[in-house]
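One-letter codes give the sequence; backbone shape is given numerically. An example follows:

. . .
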Amino acid sequence: MKEDFLHYIWKFKKFSTNNLKTESGETLEVISLGTHNLLAGPDFLNAQLRIDGQHWAGNVEIHEKSSFWYAHHHEKDEAYTNVILHVVWEHNTEVFSKNNSPIATLVLKNILQKETLISYQALINKCSSFVNCESEVTEIDSFFRNRWLERLYVERLNDKSKLILQKLQESKNDWEAVLYKMLLKNFGLKINGEAFFELSEELPFSILRKNRDSVLTVEALLFGVSNMLEVECADQYFIDLKEEYKYLESKYALKKSHLTPAYFKLRPYNFPTIRLAQIASLYNKEVNLFQQLVSCNELENYYTIFDVSASNYWEQHYTFGKETTSSKIKKLSKSFIDLLIVNTILPLKFCYLKATGEDASESIFLMIEKIKKEDNRIINSFDKIGFKTNTALGSQAQLQLYNNYCSKNKCLQCEIGVKLMNR
């Protein structure tokens, strides 16, 4: 029996309350179930109970088995000293708090409403090809679903904020340096994101900023630190980059990344050479990039800032030394800029506005609702079951929903799953 189902039973009082008794035979009356705690500590806070006529106020902890109290070392944890009731599916041992006081136990197995168990098993045990509720999700009112998506998007922003805030602390509140790291990570997309992020860790933004006036110098720094100048190539531009990097490596005592960017399964426009060359052009073109981006309130302004292309050499190249038959300017596409706005700029702006005490949600929502939804397997699968969205807010929320709830069978932590269970 999964613990989240036991949380659901308690939260929504899906058990018989007639002649309720603890495992030791004491009468039990639930005055207040408490507040569901999704962070560390007891599962429900500030509950109120009456046990054998005595009023109790405190916390409730829930486990599949009583013995899990000791398996999780709660008897040694100060945070659990105010637990007044241990709710379990199966009672297999007596439990005591840190101060050696016995804790009353309520067993749910025999008091659970049968229809609740039937509904839960029907929802969780479906042989679905995508998500458990795929045949029923369209029965939920669209207004309710959209409200849940908005909350999921804020949840996703908060998740993305964790790395941003960590890097902000490490950089001593240098927002420009954090932007640089997050841009590099997202320029690398899924395949090279980790390698590009490590590049940003090995190549401090302060060095790139000092040398931003020369595209060749910035490219030499990016290609050199990422191990992309280690190959043999007789191309003159490659030789110039290598010589420039040799000088910069000595001057700044640079260290190379452990990860080398990959080309496998990438379209030529997403080759790491092209993406790093575009980053070099962006920083050569723009000064105080973070302040420009965070002050933007119109989508078109973002497109103007990111209106950059790789340097002239790359018009006839995708990799070093291999010239293409036709010349083509390697500009950032509108769809790629949209990805940067969604995955880099808006999460950064969200953190910045919160840090400055401003209400972040309204301006972020207004912006992301103007961007079209992403095109990937998960979003397309939601489309197929009738749970459609047209905006990037919706698609970002659906990614959060699938990755954090659906794929982990956390239906009872999902508002849609709870709504279906409570029909």
User: Anything to note?
Assistant: Residues 3-112 form one domain.
